[in-house]
Structures are given as structure tokens and as C-alpha cells.
UniProtKB/TrEMBL annotation:
Described purpose of this protein according to its UniProt entry: Acts in combination with TSN as an endonuclease involved in the activation of the RNA-induced silencing complex (RISC). Possible role in spermatogenesis.
Similarity annotation: Belongs to the translin family.
Cellular location(s): Cytoplasm, Perinuclear region; Golgi apparatus; Nucleus
Keywords, alphabetical: Cytoplasm, Developmental protein, Differentiation, DNA-binding, Golgi apparatus, Isopeptide bond, Magnesium, Metal-binding, Nucleus, Spermatogenesis, Ubl conjugation
Protein's name in the database: G patch domain-containing protein 11
Disordered: annotated span: 89-164
Annotated Basic and acidic residues bias: 114-126, 136-164
Record domain G-patch: where: 70-116
Gene Ontology biological process: cell differentiation; spermatogenesis
InterPro entries per record: DUF4187 (IPR025239), G_patch_dom (IPR000467), Translin_C (IPR016069), Translin_fam (IPR002848), Translin_N (IPR016068), Translin_sf (IPR036081)
Superkingdom, natural source: Eukaryota
UniProt: Mg(2+) binding residues: 330, 396
Length: 489
């Protein structure tokens, strides 16, 4: 091999090889065949016959792209009616400009099938959400029930423990006082007995209650028994025997105040009944003097109340004497109205409830001066008792109105009507901020005012038609009917 020949590994042999793809080299005749096949396929696609649906769709789309001309009879009719091409529908031209789109149904489903499928899908989704919510609610409820059950079990265990401690303490304290038989079988701890003794011994009294009462109820009964009899607290673990005398003293004082309140109520009612006679007797001063004597006796009893209270808090025993004080306010305000035709104030009532007491004499109403060595006691009527007493006064004024008409006095009802309206206006300012008893008495006040106004209306309208000696019967019957209606309501 000479040096002038090219090496087969040189670039002179590698550069002319442009096609580096693997495989056999493609000849010119094969390339031409492939080109012709490609052109044939393109011509077949262009010359392929379109289906009827495709041709129909193409024609429809082309027609929809063009606007209607004036040659169209429908469009010509619209133009004659004033329509202009490109203008919106409506009188103002603000309506639809483009025509409604045309939706062609191409599937074989019935009419409304798509809406039904959509509705069923929505219902299925809604049901799934409901089931999911119910499941979540049940899981939450199950968790709450579990917590409640555990809390109840814990409380039951604590109750059982406190019950056993209370029974043991009750047995020990009863035996210390010489009590050998418990108040009930379950007040003391149960005694463990053998099987034979259980069959031989009959059922003791209280077994029925033992089956009916729960552990919590037993604990409440035993706790109340321990506190009231032995002054013992199971949770403090101490018997407060030092307070037994103090509690007994307060209880006795409460009972004495209740008795005094009853006496005050009785005497006040008698005074009110006496004052109602002023409408039928000629000598009114005699009635008023007797009423003043009775009211002084009532004040004397109120002085005993002040003496019983001493330095104790007024509101600690307020419920014991509250009814009597309200009845006294009603009596003294009724007496004051008959004398002066005005309403007595709270300050005037309290000014008369100042008493003097010494070691030798009993408690007396304070006069103009004090004697040497006397002790001054005061009793203050609370604003609530004053309001409730004035509310009760309206019922007595209503009865006074009927009695006055029966005796031929036609001016007093109108005077009472104006006075009751003023009292009603004063109570209306209180509204719902006062105690419950005030709102309850306000209802009674409105009933009394309504009856008096009905009487005044009858006097004004039919007073000349009805004889004076029959007016009382007419008003009494009407008041009875109104009371029945109020009771029915």
C-alpha cells in the first residue's frame, strides 16, 4: 500500500456519509413511492364525501352567521311594526339584541332525560351529604353520651361514698344521744347478716322506701337530718353544737313575729271594715275617732315587732311580718284618704312608728316628748311593703265607690276615679324593675280602676235613667260579672 492512497479511517471517507440513520440505505425508487402515497392520502381526505349530518351542520352554521334580509316575510313584518336591525327588543330598545341560541338535540335520549339525570345526581349528592351529617351527629352524640356516662358513674361513686360516711356518722351521733333505733332502716349502715337470718327475719319498715329512693335522695334526707338534729356537716366533719341555741332562738323569734303579724292583719282588717261605714252614717267623726284608736292598737303591736327585732337585721325576718305591715299600710292610707282625700307618704307612716320602752313599762307609741330612762325604738316600713299596701288600697277605694253610689253620692265615684288614675300612673313608672309582687298587684289595681271607670261611665250615660236607690244594685251586679270574667281569664 503506497503512501499516496487515502486511509479508509480518514475524513475523506466519513464526511460524504450525511445519512447516519441505522438500516439499509433507501433507494430513489422507494422514496418516490412513499411521496406518491402521501399525496394520494391527502387527495382522498379532500375529496372524501361528507356525511349528511356534517353537511347539514355546515349549512346551518353558515345560515346562522348571516342576518335576515328584508326579503324575509317575518323580518319584513317586524320592520313594519317598527323594529330596526341591530336594535334591542322592547319599547326602549334595551332588550335582547342577539337571537336566542339554537340547541340541536343530537343524542337519542328522551325529552327531559338530561334534566332528570342532573336532578338524580343532585339528589344523590344531597342524600350523601345528609348521611354524612347524620353520621357526624351520631359520632358527636356518642362522644357526648360517653362523657355523660363517665361523669354519671363518677358522681354515683362519690354519692355512694358520701352516703356511707353519712350513715356511719348518723349511727354514731344517734347512739351518743341514746337513740337505739334509726329513723329509717337506711339511715344507718346495713348490717351484714348470714343467709339463715335473712330468711328468718321479716322485712322491716322502710324496705319499700329503700327500693324507691335513689342514693342521692337518701343522701339528701340523711344530710338534712344530720344538720337539723345533730348540727353535723358530713363534708366539714364537724358537729356545730355551739350554734344550736342560736338557731333555736331565731326560730322561736320567727314564730313570735308570725303571730304578731297575724294579730296586726286582723286588727287592720277590722279597722278597714269600720272605715267603710263612713258612706252610710251621718256622724263620720265618731267613726274616724274609733278608727284612730284601733290604729293606735295596731301600732302598739308593731312596737312589739320592733322590740322583737332589736338590733337584728330587718330583712332577716321580713317574711314573718310582711303581710301584717302591708295590711297596716292599707288601713292607715285608707283612713288618711277619708280625712284628707290624699295619699299618705312613706315618711308620714314611718314618723308614727317611733316607740318608747323602759324596764318598768311596756313599749308605747312615742308622743311629744321622752320620759327619763326611756329607750327609743323605731320601725321602718320598706318601700316595697308601702307600694304593696297602696296597691291593696285601690280595692277598698273601689268598694267605697260602689257604697257611695248606693247612698246617693254621685260625686265621690268621679273623685275616686281621678285618684286611682294618679296611683296607676305612679305604678306605671315602676314598670318591670320592681319585685314580682308589685307587678302582680298592678294587675289588681287595673281591675279596680276599670270597675270604677265603668261605674262613672254608667253614671254619666245612664245616671238619669236609673233611680238612685237602684244604682248600687246595678253596679254590684256589674262588678260581680267583671270579677267572674277576670277569674275566667
Amino acid at each position: 500500500m503506497s503512501s499516496e492512497d487515502d486511509d479508509y479511517m480518514s475524513d475523506a471517507f466519513l464526511n460524504p456519509l450525511l445519512d447516519v440513520r441505522p438500516g439499509m440505505p433507501m433507494v430513489k425508487r422507494l422514496k418516490e413511492t412513499l411521496r406518491r402515497e402521501t399525496l394520494h392520502k391527502e387527495k382522498n381526505i379532500l375529496n372524501q364525501q361528507k356525511s349528511y349530518k356534517e353537511k347539514e351542520k355546515n349549512r346551518r352554521d353558515a345560515a346562522l352567521q348571516n342576518s335576515l334580509s328584508s326579503e324575509n316575510k317575518g323580518f319584513a313584518l317586524l320592520q313594519k311594526m317598527g323594529y330596526t336591525a341591530g336594535q334591542g327588543l322592547g319599547k326602549e330598545g334595551t332588550g335582547r339584541v342577539e337571537p336566542l341560541p339554537l340547541n340541536i338535540k343530537t343524542d337519542r335520549g328522551g325529552i327531559g332525560m338530561e334534566e332528570q339525570k342532573k336532578r338524580k345526581a343532585e339528589e344523590k349528592l344531597t342524600n350523601y351529604r345528609k348521611r354524612l351529617q347524620v353520621r357526624q351527629h351520631m359520632e358527636k352524640k356518642s362522644l357526648e353520651d360517653f362523657r355523660d356516662r363517665k361523669r354519671t358513674e363518677r358522681e354515683h361513686r362519690e354519692t355512694e361514698g358520701d352516703l356511707r360516711k353519712s350513715q356511719w356518722a348518723c349511727e354514731q351521733l344517734d347512739k351518743q344521744k341514746g337513740i337505739i333505733v334509726p329513723k329509717d332502716s337506711w339511715y344507718w349502715p346495713e348490717v351484714v347478716k348470714n343467709q339463715e337470718a335473712e330468711h328468718e327475719e321479716p322485712i322491716t319498715e322502710g324496705s319499700k322506701d329503700d327500693m324507691e329512693l335513689t342514693s342521692l335522695e337518701k343522701l339528701q334526707f340523711i344530710t338534712s337530718y344530720l344538720r337539723s338534729v345533730h348540727f353535723y356537716c358530713i363534708w366539714c366533719g364537724t358537729a356545730y353544737s355551739v350554734f344550736q341555741q342560736e338557731l333555736d332562738t331565731k326560730h322561736d323569734k320567727y314564730e313570735r313575729l308570725v303571730k304578731l303579724s297575724r294579730d296586726i292583719t286582723i286588727e287592720s282588717k277590722r279597722t278597714i271594715f269600720l272605715l267603710h261605714r263612713v258612706t252610710s252614717v251621718p256622724n263620720v267623726e265618731e267613726i274616724l275617732n274609733e278608727a284612730n284608736i284601733r290604729l293606735d292598737a295596731v301600732r302598739q303591736k308593731i312596737g312589739h315587732v320592733a322590740e322583737e327585732l332589736g338590733e337584728d337585721d330587718l330583712y332577716q325576718f321580713h317574711k314573718a311580718f310582711m303581710p301584717g305591715i302591708q295590711e297596716y299600710v292599707e288601713a292607715v292610707s285608707f283612713n288618711h284618704f277619708i280625712k284628707h282625700r290624699t295619699l299618705i307618704s312613706l315618711e308620714e307612716i314611718n314618723a308614727c312608728l317611733v316607740f318608747m320602752r323602759d324596764e318598768k313599762t311596756e313599749t308605747k307609741v312615742c308622743g311629744r316628748g321622752l320620759w327619763p330612762g326611756a329607750c327609743v325604738l323605731t320601725f321602718q316600713v320598706t318601700p316595697t311593703d308601702y307600694l304593696l299596701g297602696v296597691a291593696d288600697l285601690t280595692g277598698e277605694l273601689m268598694r267605697m265607690c260602689i257604697s257611695s253610689v248606693g247612698n246617693g253620692d254621685v260625686d265621690t265615684p268621679f273623685e275616686l276615679s281621678n285618684f286611682l288614675r294618679q296611683i296607676h300612673d305612679g305604678f306605671s313608672y315602676i314598670g318591670n324593675v320592681g319585685p314580682y309582687e308589685v307587678s302582680k298587684k298592678l294587675h289588681t289595681l287595673r281591675q279596680s280602676l276599670g270597675k270604677v271607670e265603668d261605674a262613672c261611665y254608667t253614671l254619666r250615660v245612664r245616671g238619669s235613667e236609673i233611680p238612685k236607690h237602684m244604682l248600687a244594685d246595678v253596679f254590684s251586679n256589674r262588678a260581680a260579672v267583671l270579677e267572674e270574667d277576670d277569674g275566667a281569664v
